[in-house]
Design goal:
With 295 residues, the protein is of the alpha+beta class. It has helices at residues 25-77, 84-133, 144-160, 175-182, 184-200, 225-241, 271-287; strands spanning 7-9, 165-172, 207-212, 215-221, 244-246, 252-253, 258-264, 293-294. It has a 5-stranded mixed beta sheet with strand order 3-4-2-7-8, sandwiched between helices. A 3-stranded antiparallel beta sheet has the order 1-5-6, covered by helices on one side. The protein is elongated, with a radius of gyration of 32 Å.
Length: 295
C-alpha cells in the first residue's frame, strides 16, 4: 500500500496529501450531496425569514392604523366647548398613544434589523454553495459545469463584440501509465499541482477548469491565437522543467509533460464547436509526438 504520500515540485511549497482517485468520484458525490443539503437548508431559512419579515411589516402596519385611529378619536374630542380639564386628558392620552407607538416602532425596527442580518448570512451561505457547485472537488479550480457556463457567456459576448476569444485544451502525456506505476494518490497530487500552475499563469479574466480526468481547459477572453499560444507554451515549458519527489520515500518520479491544443472563436459557431476544434488540435499535438502546442 502507498499510504499517505505527498508529492512536491522541486523548489515549490509542499502540497497536501489526498486519498481521492483521479476521477475524484466519491469526493465529488459527497460535495454535491453537501451542497444540495446546504442549498435546501438555506432555502428553508430564507422562507422562514421572509415569513417573519411579512409578519413584522403587518404588525407595523397594524400599529400605524391603531395610532391613526387614536389620533382621529382624540381629535373629535377637541370641540369648541371643551373644558380645560378635558384638554389635559386628551393631551395625556395622545402622549400615551404616541409613546406606545414609538415603543412598537422600536421593537419592529429591531426585529427588521435582526432579519436583515440573517438574510445577509443566508446570502453569504448561498454564494458559498454556488461556488461549491462550480468548483472541482480535487483541484479546486472550475469544474466542467462552470466551464460550460462561462464559455456560453463568453461566446455570446464574442458574437456581439469583435474581440477575440480563445480556448486552450491541455492533457497530460502518458498519464495512465504514470498512474499504473505510482498510484492514484500520487497522480492526484500531480493534477492539483498542475491546476495551480495553470492558475498562476493566467489573468483574472481567464478561466482555468478541469475538463475531465487529466484533461484541463482555459477560456481566454480578448485573447487571439498568438497570445493564447504564448500562455500555453509558458505552462508547458514550466511543467516539463519541474521535478517531482515523494516526500515520504524521497523517490523522484519521472518528469511530466502535457500537450496543448488552441483554437480561437469564429463568430456564430458556438462554444461546442470551438472546444471541438481546440480538442482536434490537442489530438494533433499528441499524434506529432506529444509535449507540444498546436494551433
Amino acid at each position: 500500500p502507498l499510504g499517505m504520500m505527498v508529492v512536491r515540485f522541486a523548489g515549490s511549497k509542499t502540497a497536501g496529501s489526498t486519498t481521492a482517485s483521479n476521477t475524484a468520484t466519491s469526493k465529488s458525490a459527497a460535495s454535491i450531496r453537501k451542497t444540495k443539503e446546504h442549498l435546501e437548508a438555506s432555502s428553508d431559512k430564507a422562507d422562514k425569514e421572509l415569513t417573519d419579515i411579512l409578519r413584522i411589516v403587518g404588525t407595523y402596519a397594524g400599529a400605524g392604523d391603531r395610532y391613526k385611529e387614536a389620533l382621529a378619536k382624540n381629535n373629535n374630542k377637541l370641540g369648541r366647548n371643551i373644558r380645560p380639564d378635558q384638554v389635559k386628558q386628551v393631551v395625556r392620552t395622545l402622549i400615551s398613544d404616541n409613546q406606545n407607538f414609538l415603543n412598537d416602532t422600536k421593537k419592529l425596527s429591531e426585529s427588521l434589523e435582526e432579519s436583515k442580518k440573517k438574510i445577509e448570512e443566508l446570502r453569504a451561505n448561498l454564494t458559498e454553495a454556488q461556488e461549491e457547485v462550480f468548483r472541482d472537488a480535487l483541484t479546486e479550480i472550475s469544474n466542467r459545469r462552470h466551464f460550460d457556463t462561462i464559455l456560453k457567456r463568453e461566446t455570446a459576448e464574442a458574437d456581439k463584440h469583435p474581440e477575440p476569444l480563445s480556448v486552450v485544451m491541455a492533457d497530460f502525456d502518458h498519464f495512465k501509465k504514470f498512474n499504473d506505476n505510482f498510484g492514484h494518490q500520487i497522480g492526484d497530487e500531480i493534477l492539483k499541482l498542475f491546476a495551480k500552475l495553470m492558475s498562476k499563469n493566467i489573468r483574472e479574466t481567464d478561466t482555468a477548469a478541469r475538463y475531465g480526468g487529466e484533461e484541463f481547459a482555459l477560456i481566454m477572453p480578448q485573447t487571439d491565437t498568438k497570445n493564447a499560444l504564448i500562455v500555453a507554451e509558458r505552462i508547458r515549458r514550466e511543467l516539463e522543467t519541474k521535478t517531482f519527489t515523494i516526500r515520504k520515500t524521497g523517490e523522484q518520479v519521472p518528469k511530466m509533460t502535457a500537450s496543448f491544443g488552441i483554437a480561437t472563436y469564429r463568430r456564430g459557431e458556438g462554444g461546442a464547436q470551438l472546444v471541438e476544434r481546440a480538442d482536434a488540435k490537442l489530438y494533433e499535438a499528441k499524434q506529432a509526438g506529444r509535449n507540444q502546442s498546436m494551433i
